[in-house]
């Protein structure tokens, strides 16, 4: 298995370090906050105020196109009140956000009398530019609007002076590197944040003669995320003590993979229940809310009618541009209700593509979950730190196999399920991470497993009797074992040969 070559530029990482120090958190309007202000959204925009580290003002993040055409601070919000934070409604196409739905009270602090012995993380890559397919859809839309010579009015009046948020198509699919939500900065600060929590485990991890291993699937944006994270967690000289192992995203790996969606052949080929089910279900739901938006834009600009794909591209640009420039003119084109629909459309997409809505979801996700369970049972001898970097399409199956936020009934495509647990924005936003902590709470309490999804401690249903609603390790292991028996053999269900690898073997120190 190949290892990552040295980082080509230490200067880039030094820059990230400086930025991280002066802008650990940022404020939308200014550095000053009203004394009565309290954090309602875990620290975003104007809510990041009392009791937080020093932060630079939003003005320090000036971008050449940030203020183009009279943009102002409110554009990050779209149409909505003060309590509306659009970052929670971008369906995974925007910056990282904390999980705030169905979380355990008390925050991420380790329960009294307990200590963390082992950490396992599965993380999505950090904030990125659009994929090539999505980017081309945006380019096509912008060309259509610009070439029409129409003087757009109303919500689209800004288009005349607006420029695409990337100048080179080679940037597509790669991490963003500008603004407060940049992927490079987010990856590095995540490393620093986790070092802050788990620094006491590093000496133990380094006590072995071999370097500390961590893993990334073979995608540039995933690898770069792991590299920046490594610099934040282990230090700029991380390659002296740690080694990043790259796991190919090829179909021949069978069950020995970080990306089972690429190796499960039936999942790829099954049009009705496989990968393609998600887009099909999303398009059906999308058709329920697009007509009203289309009509509104048509009334403002009678000379141009937009298709569902074009309107969807506009909504996507809100999040993607925000990760590059810090805000987007496309956000206020839509109402709060429009974005609630967009958020749900994205939930539908991932729920039915790689989550509980496909019969292959838990089957694929169990591979990493089972390998992690075995490391937990092995205990301290296995090592204390295990970090894996993947795509959101790999996190959804693992979350599904864990049965931690699965809804009792499948998500409907006729209306928004307002009380749903499955929320893409909070489960796997850009940089989204699920952390499994093995905590030891003394001889009487024993060892437990605590789940941290994007800094929101989340209890496992029917397994939360431990400190801080953690799950006893023995019960967790039995739970994972039962799930394996339920989903069946990976090779058989995926249509692979009997000589294909059946499980993950690389996840060890």
Automatic annotation (TrEMBL):
Transmembrane segments: 7-26
Keywords annotated in UniProt: Disulfide bond, Glycoprotein, Hydrolase, Membrane, Transmembrane, Transmembrane helix
Keyword Transmembrane helix belongs to the record: yes
Active-site residues annotated for this sequence: 125, 392
Domain of life: Eukaryota
Organism: Clohesyomyces aquaticus
SUPFAM superfamilies found in the cross-reference section: Phosphoglycerate mutase-like
A Gene Ontology term for the protein's cellular component: fungal-type cell wall
Pfam families with a match to the protein in the record: His_Phos_2 (PF00328)
GO terms assigned for molecular function: acid phosphatase activity
Disulfide bonds: 114-441, 318-331, 463-471
Stated name of the protein: Histidine phosphatase superfamily
Record flagged with keyword Hydrolase: yes
